[in-house]
Amino acid sequence: MQPTYQNYIAGAFVGTPDEPTIDVTNPATQELIARVPDASAATVDAAVAAARRAQPAWEKLPPIQRAGHLRAIAAKLREHRTELARVIVREQGKVQGLAQVEVDFTADYIDYMAEWARRLEGEVLTSDRPNESIFLLRKPVGVVAGILPWNFPFFLIARKLAPALVTGNTIVIKPSEETPINAFEFARLVAETDLPAGVFNLVGGRGATAGEALVSHPGVDLITFTGSVATGSRIMQTAGRNLTRVNLELGGKAPAIVLADADLDLAAKAIYDSRVINTGQVCNCAERVYVERGVHDALVDRLAKLFAATRYGDPSVEADLHMGPLVNQAGLDKVAAMVEQARSDGARIVVGGKRADLGRGFHYEPTLITGTRADMDIMRKEIFGPVLPVQAVDDLDEAIALANDSEYGLTSSIFTRSLDSAMRAARELRFGETYINREHFEAMQGFHAGRRKSGIGGADGKHGLYEFTETHVVYLQTS
Ligand code: NAD
To answer: Could you report the per-residue pLDDT of 391-407, keeping only the tens digit for each?
Structure first.
């Protein structure tokens, strides 16, 4: 018998026997592993109401005490780190090592955000009048709705919850219907701490049901969403009805530029790592390569060796894999269709190029493609799978122009030994992040923010923290 989880509202797990449930399966085996609720509008309303009731007292609590609650949650996660990683492996298909990194990073992230408790600052401004003081206060927004994707499902809980809570907000989280179990396990651990009821609430459900109910709810003050451009755009339209603030972390099509003077071994390994991690399902993954013509073949040879040596399979039974399956049938079909399209557009498949037949599960071969052109979909649309297209360019000018010619603007990278070229790329690439001579992966103290259709606002560090606050300017006139 598979477990059926319950929504976590106002500090208690609440049964809703009349509501439909969602089957959660293991993408490596297609076996049913659990059921979660598909929350109705009434359930979402109860969760938002609980968050609203809890917010004023939570805001009054000194930040250092709020941080204490966050640290207690982080400690719980560490106590259960192995089981939590196992859950992520089973429901998302992540390889074991990366699932463990995700759990540990999540606990570290919560502790990092807790450290801001004594560093939250307002400003004192000069006045044009005698005997007046002007204070700019930073206050919580109120009730936050956090809507999560499936690719780093556990970490994304922390990326929403920790900055929201330390700044005095309360939160309602809706995980992805593909990977909700880890969030319900998170709630189970939160319930073992003494976090006040209603500060954190969790509702399961699909985007069209629970998701819509949450983002259209007038009791929500800020929607922080991570997911696709299409859903982000829809959420922004829905939020427009109530003029609810949005923070959107959306898709990417990250370019990696390799110049002729680069360390090619380093470049190939960093790009490869950034492409197969999480089976290519990462928003900041290297999604397209522009390499100077003179070193094109040398880079492709190195990449081909790495791609061909990729170990993939079912991570719930095999340790030490580079890749697991794609998350679902739709993800697999999309990747397969994009590679077929590239092939018929005239691109050359160097390694891979088809579904991997492992008997069951949504596996795709690690795939390296060359001979692409800028107008091909494989160079323009987000692949979100283990497929890397490589295009030769004449020089840095052409590489920067092609990199910037994208509707996405999340991350980018350049490999070169020239400080001048690296700094030119840093000045001219129009992306939220640029990695120089290293793989694509952000730090918690940075600021992860996309330009163009990659999003609005950002996450992490001081700037991400302040996305969860509002300013309040107070003018004090004395005599
Ligand atoms: P998705 O947009 O399909 O779903 C994300 C979440 O939105 C899910 O919880 C879903 O239930 C919910 N949702 C769907 N429709 C909704 C609606 N109408 N109203 C409210 N909620 C709704 O995205 P996904 O497939 O889960 O994630 C993959 C995408 O996320 C990729 O495009 C990837 O690039 C992006 N992503 C971005 C970042 C970042 O930091 N920029 C990080 C991870 C993933």
So the answer is: 999 999 999 999 999 99
